[in-house]
Design goal:
The complex is a heterodimer. By secondary structure, chain A is of the alpha+beta class. Chain A contains four helices and nine strands, in the order βββαβββββααβα. In chain B, the strands form four sheets. Chain B has a six-stranded mixed beta sheet. Chain B has a six-stranded antiparallel beta barrel with strand order 14-17-16-15-18-19. A five-stranded antiparallel beta sheet of chain B has the order 5-6-7-4-8. Classes of the chains: A alpha+beta, B alpha+beta.
Chain lengths: ~120, ~350
Amino acid sequence: MNIPSELKYTKDHEWLKVDGDIATIGITDFAQGELGDIVYVEVETLDETLDAEEVFGTVEAVKTVSDLFMPVSGEIIEFNEELESAPESVNSDPYGAGWMIKVKLSDVSQLDALMSADDYKALVG
Amino acid sequence: MKNTALSHIHESLGAKMVPFAGYNMPVQYEGVNAEHETVRTGVGVFDVSHMGEFILRGPKALDLIQKVTSNDATKLFDGRAQYSCMPNNDGGIVDDLLVYRISEEEYLLVVNASNIDKDWDWIKSHNTFGVEMSDISDSMSLLAVQGPKATETLQKLTDVNLSEVKYYHFTKGTFAGVDNVILSATGYTGSGGFELYIPNDVTEEVWKKVFEAGEEFGIKPIGLAARDTLRLEMGFCLYGNDIDDTTSPFEAGLGWITKFTKDFVNSENLAKQKEAGVSKKLVAFEMIDRGIPRHDYVIVDAAGNNIGRVTSGTQSPSLKKAIGLGYVNNEFTAVGSEIFLDIRNKSVKAQVVKLPFYKA
């Protein structure tokens, strides 16, 4: 299973790539494998500011649906529009073309509570 | 949890395994869309050994079957199978099943894995006919080999002329060197093929031979996830989702297997219900707005009034559309009726359509 060392992770199987006070967020390789073939990603919270743990969207797979949770508090400044026509990117390239949103962090110190790649690896076994 | 004779093979193939009705079953191998496509265009193999098999034997076996099932089993002859259901006394359904006539005094009943104990007790409780019953579920495997290339694949392994076995007919023959295999032209996919009933001890060998025979057609193992999307595209009911202890055969659109040519469990009440009509029915629908129906989503009308509930739903891999089955009040059952699903507090539009969703 692919768990890049430079990313941060959550127990909800999301990853974050941090650049200053902007975080790019997606779901992990483990998560996409559990969901199976993804049909679409719905994010209707663009431009909203949400708290950590709030639902920012949903991901619909053929067999199941899952909520997407904010790993940290912040404003959703971008949604990956490419997913509208190529939702399968989440399956094939979860850490690259399958990214979902970009968030302007409200409180950078929240990042300290996230998991490292090693912690996450221990979680998903 | 029980393993089938092939659980270790599925694991070695990298399948994602899930507990299903007490069995360790493969839900998917490479992915539901790809597996679905394999069955629609080529040939795929399902291990559905979790299904239950009962043998009923004796001069009155037919009488017992007539008593507990709704379809008319006197229509069967040797080598003929029938889809049927077992009504309960409260207007619902104990299980749906296949009834095979092996001989005049011997029948095979194939029931859902999750209902094996319930069905066994139910049938036994009605066995005032002295019928000899045996539950062979634990010693039998069931392979469903399905798809347009299934017959050609299987033909390599038997002298029985499979193209002469018509839909819902079966024969017993030597297959892959194993005697007395039931070769049944049935399935749960709508893409044709056979279901093979095989003793556990030779199942792994048969599985291997089937894969060798199908290699030139790109044969693949298929998991339960694709089994569900395939059956749903055909509108086949799934017990526990679309039908259960509380749904009437008439509500479920199973009037065609409910025959009042005989007396059976709850037949008087069901006959009255047929005459009076039911107030809700199982319908097929396609999403108009974006959304994927899921079991137990609430169905509403344009004004937001609750008019029913979803029993099955998926994104259809063949049609690239979201499809579902659900019970709705009578006034919304006509093809073309506009209905709405309450999905995460949003009203999402759908339309009632005719079955099957997918035409092979």
